[in-house]
Design goal:
The chain is an alpha+beta fold and 448 residues long. The protein contains 5 helices and 29 strands. Helix content is 15%, strand content 40%. The strands form 8 sheets. Strands 25-26-29-27-28 form a 5-stranded mixed β-sheet.
Length: 448
Amino acid sequence: MKFIKIFIVVFLFFSSDIIAQGKIISDTSSCFQLVTGTVKNKVTNEIIKDATVKLYAQNSLLKTIQTNSKGSFNFKVACDASYQLVSFKGDLSKTTKSFVTSNTGNIRVKFSLLIEEPEKCTITLEGIVKNDEDEFMNESVVIVYDKGKEINRAIVKRDAKYQFILECNKPYKIVAQSVNHIEYSYVQNTGTKNNKIFEKDFSLEKLACIKDLYGEITNANTKIKIADVTIYLLLNGNRIKTTKTNNQGEYLLKNVSCNDNYSMSVSKTNYQKSIFRIAKIESGPKGYFISTPLIPIPKKEIVEVEENIIDAEIKPTIKKEPIIEDTPSSKLLEVGVIQFDLNQSEITREIAIELDKIVTLMIVKPTVNVLLKSHTDSRGPDIYNDNLTEARAQSMVNYIVSNGIDSNRVTGKGYGETELTNECSNGVKCLESAHQANKRNEFIITNE
């Protein structure tokens, strides 16, 4: 009995899908064939392991297998029948192979199934950026975000047009921005149709300009902030708002309308009263920072000591050499690094701290006139860099004038990329540090 059992097991084993000398050993009552093949990448011709291969007959799934490490597969099929092979893997395209077996049994039929990466589906998003008066918004910016990360941006040129090529079947956040206008954003769903064109025109609304004026009052000599300073905001000589500095020497005047000509009166016992004109407040989303130095009223017996203290603080900020311009009276002022935000010209708190040094110098030395020169590196369009540096120079001039300096004593000019300090001009590949050396702001004493 043991011998008979072993014989039966061996017989059943050899009656399965095994190839011997090119033929299938099968039941004599049926006609079978062996379908074999490999799955390959259509473009590279590389074999693809772990690809899925499915066998169908009359739209019914008969069997599913995975290709082995050599990209191979095999199925046992009946003679004289119609079948269909379907193969795919991951993002690769699905391939289908239909075939009909002959009436000859115990043979092997071989196929190669070729699959490839599907054609990438993309759409075009394009349009125009205008303002609410239907005027082209040159130099505005349109930004594309994917899952919160910026992936592309376009700076709108003279024709105010923008264009992006985006992947299908994705939601992108599109943001349009321009200085002194309300930001506009929406979600663009790109759909599944390849090469579709989406048109989106933006109409940006001007900001209703209301700002907070904030800042600090400091001792012009020691730079220490002063508490309990009385501040009046004046319009046409009339007091419209009042406040005092807190214990940290800081103040806040909320909800001040833009585009009016204001003055500010600042006073405290034992300090010289200061009244100065505020440059017209530009519209924009941020507050307007004004830092004001107050000059202490010295006691008669220590007048010379006070003057010496001021001189000691000012002298290190002036280069004794070299002479910058052609005139022998021009000297370059040394201040800390002034770094504007990318594509911005607004005065930040850090910039204001450095500009206050210039203001202090011009207060204690009333014969000093200053020229401000703003520069960029060569990256970006030439015209854009010219306009950007001009806006930055004028912002710095306005800040200095708003702190009590006569507008005739301070001028500013933007030079764009026309006065580079090295060879990093248009088209020249340079290290980031070399480009940064060209992004600078200079303050020059034009007379003393």
